[in-house]
Amino acid sequence: MTVEVSGVEELERQLVSLFGRENLPQLVDPALIAGATLVAKTLKSEFVQFKDTGASIDEINIENPVYDKGVRSIKIDWKGPKDRYKIIHLNEYGYTRNGKKITPAGTGSVARSLRISERAYRAIVQKKIGDKL
């Protein structure tokens, strides 16, 4: 599941022209980490509503920023001893068992948390990058 923010590529091109590609990570990475932390916090609050053991909440992980298709990005995933990454998609979209559609309590929670935190994510990334300029 991805969130696409329009205008990011243009912003990155302008930042590269101002600071150079080699200096871009020092400028953008703290903003990406702050934004991802906010999204992870929102994910955790959405997952609390239907938690059982809390493993899905405990295994939310923020990766280090990397270049993905030429754009600096950061990934939030699930890593841990209970391997919750295997069932997150079942919880998000539901599943079929014996011909019957099963909709768990947390259906749509990832999409909902992304929608809730989208504006705040943009604001925090803009603020962090603006502070460095």
UniProtKB/TrEMBL annotation:
This is HK97 gp10 family phage protein.
